Every structure is written in C-alpha cells, then in structure tokens.
Amino acid sequence: xxxxxxxxxxxxxxxxxxxxxxxxxxxxxxxxxxxxxxxxxxxxxxxxxxxxxxxxxxxxxxxxxxxxxxxxxxxxxxxxxxxxxxxxxxxxxxxxxxxxxxxxxxxxxxxxxxxxxxxxxxxxxxxxxxxxxxxxxxxxxxxxxxxxxxxxxxxxxxxxxxxxxxxxxxxxxxxxxxxxxxxxxxxxxxxxxxxxxxxxxxxxxxxxxxxxxxxxxxxxxxxxxxxxxxxxxxxxxxxxxxxxxxxxxxxxxxxxxxxxxxxxxxxxxxxxxxxxxxxxxxxxxxxxxxxxxxxxxxxx
Length: 300
What we know:
By secondary structure, the chain is α+β, with helices and mostly antiparallel strands. The chain has helices at 15-25, 31-36, 38-45, 50-63, 98-107, 195-198, 218-228, 235-247, 251-264, 269-275, 278-284, 286-291, and strands spanning 3-5, 70-72, 75-80, 84-91, 120-126, 131-136, 153-159, 165-168, 173-177, 184-191, 202-205, 210-214.
C-alpha cells in the first residue's frame, strides 16, 4: 500500500542540496530507498521561497516569448536530470462556474482512480491538500484489457496536507484525487527508469473492480501506433512487426504485434502464433481481443 509519512522535520534543504542528496544517497530503482529518503523531500518543502522564485523565472521566460517547463497546465517541471525529475502540481478547488467543472475535473484527473507506471514520492507544499482514496492491486495477476476484473484492496481516504509525505509504488498503488477546499500545491520526486517504457497505466472502477481504460503512457502510444498498421501496411510492415513480436520486452506490445500480424496476414496466422511466447497468447486470446485492449485516455 502507499506509504504515508507524517514526519516532523525542522531542517530546511535548498533545491540544490536536496537534488545532490538524491543523486548521492538514493537508489532510485529501490522503492524502500525512496521511502527512506522521504524526510529530504519534507525538508525541501520547508523552503518557502524556492518555488515562487522558480515560477518567477518561468514568468520571465514567458514574457520573452519562450515556452515554460509545463507537463500540463497544472504541472510544472522545476528540476530534471538523467536519473529523475521533480515537478510541482497545482490543485484547484471546485469551480463556481458549473460549465467549467467537467473540463477542470479532466485536467486535474479528479475522481479518476488510476495507478502509475513509476514509483514516486510526493509532499503537500501549500494549501489544505487534496483528499485521496487509496487502493492497491497486484499487477502480476492482471493481463491489462478493458473490462478485466481486478482484485482491489480498499485502503480508505487520506489527505495530502501541508508537510505530509506519501510514497506510491509503481503498478501497485491506486489513488483517486478529489478537489481540495482551497488552492493547493504538491511536489513530486519521480525517477526516470526503463519501466516508464515497458509498463502500462490503468484507470479503474473500484466499485465494479474492473479496468475501464488505459492512460496516456508510452505503452498506450505504442499500441495505438501498431494498430495503425491494420489499415496501411506493406511487406516492410510485416518484417518490422515480426521483429517486435520476437524481441520487444513489453508483452502487451508483442501481443499487439501478433494481433496486427494476424489481421494483415491471416494465412500466416499459425506461423505467427507458433513463434509467439506463451505470455503473448494470454494477452491476445480471442475473448481478450474482443474485449479490447486498454488504450490511452486522459492523463495524470
């Protein structure tokens, strides 16, 4: 389950000191190491000036006609290096204009139970913080198609209040965020790892205990690209798809390659299936194909 840390840290770390601390002391591939480093993110949150200074710099960039470091309208990257990046997320309360609420709920991913394909640590920086419902699941028991039943553990509701730290494990922890009562800001530490390329992200229906969509991640983008070749292809397409079927590390990508190959060369279906690994067959067997695979939809 997500690790929740109410840490009483009086030390203040500058952004430079914090990022050096992470570089020198933290194994970003090890979730436990991330959790052990959480006090440092809490110490960074004690610096009440660095973030406004950063936003001032972005404002100056904008005034000079340059593009800000936005991941989305509500998310700004304020540090990046080859091993990790850091972002600030702004969470807005419910808009008094009913016509704007649906758009803002999509923008902030409110009421959207989802996981992530990366570990991350987050801290409440300003405002009251957003409420969040927490769940967990075992991805090793999941194929990944829309409508698939998933065993979810309901872990209750928490709030990312000021100074509170939460650590989320990739493809295990699920959260649903809700509008805070006042404008709030959180800071995230996010490792940059190979799993970002391989692992999917999902949207869930906790009541029905099902996967209802995929998220805009690199897996979903690959599946969408491969699906294109059902409609436009030549001999080169088949050769490339066969290499993907044989070599790609992501089972969902190999499964999609097999599905597309069978669609464009149906007479060769048996040959394609003979060379596919058993895990690929689990992904593309007929009932799953007809149910649909989890494509990207929305973003977190």
